[in-house]
Amino acid sequence: MTAARPAAGVARTVGLMNICVFLSAADLDDRYTRPAREFAELLGKGGHTLVWGGSESGLMKVVADGVHETGGGLIGVSVEFLAAKARAVSAPDEMVIAADLAERKRLLMEKADAVVIMVGGTGTLDEATEILELKKHGKTDKPVVLLNSAGFYDGLKEQFRRMEDEGFLPIPLTDLVFFAEEPVGALAYLEESRGIE
Q1: How confident is the model at residue 43 (pLDDT cuts 50, 70, 90)?
Q2: Which of 59, 100, 115, 166 has the fewest CB atoms below 10 angstroms from its CB?
């Protein structure tokens, strides 16, 4: 498998942080693609590596392109039944094909230092709730950011607040997840959490 090389003058980097992004592989409008692309470019310029679902379609492609074109690294984890849609990459980037969705989630989380949840459907929600459940039980201390592009997660944010207010969360919501309204705030929180200046 081969991939387009970065634009002239953009060196490939070994990331300071491996940032897993859970998001949709659907083609979406500018309300969602603009912030996703902006976050990806910030990630790449910051010298970080993207860990993502490996797809070469939709919002996943937007993010992978943005990171790749600005010099960041790529670690993709696809799954056998979606392998035909996996992005072609070459060293130093990496693509892993998992046997099933459960293994894919496990590998994505293992390879990541931090997690960002972007807009998505049921698959994204499944991935998001798993990392939050692990964090709730102290099984991981990885920082988790929910990027609330165009208010997409306003309802979920309200639900989490109700869970906290009514005693369903054993830890403060602020210890579980950080809600960012803009990409720059999402990356700043992650870098601060990991002591990166």
Answers
A1: very high
A2: 166
187-196: which pairs have CB atoms within 8 A and are 24 or more residues apart?
Answer: 187/39, 187/42, 187/43, 187/46, 189/143, 189/145, 190/17, 190/19, 190/114, 190/116, 190/143, 190/145, 191/17, 191/46, 193/114, 193/143, 194/17, 194/113, 194/114, 194/143, 196/16, 196/17
Residue 12: CB atoms within 10 Å = 15
pLDDT digits (tens, 9 = 90+) for 124-153: 999 999 999 999 999 999 999 999 999 999
Question: What is the SS3 assignment for 26?
Answer: coil
Predicted local confidence at residue 197, as pLDDT: 66
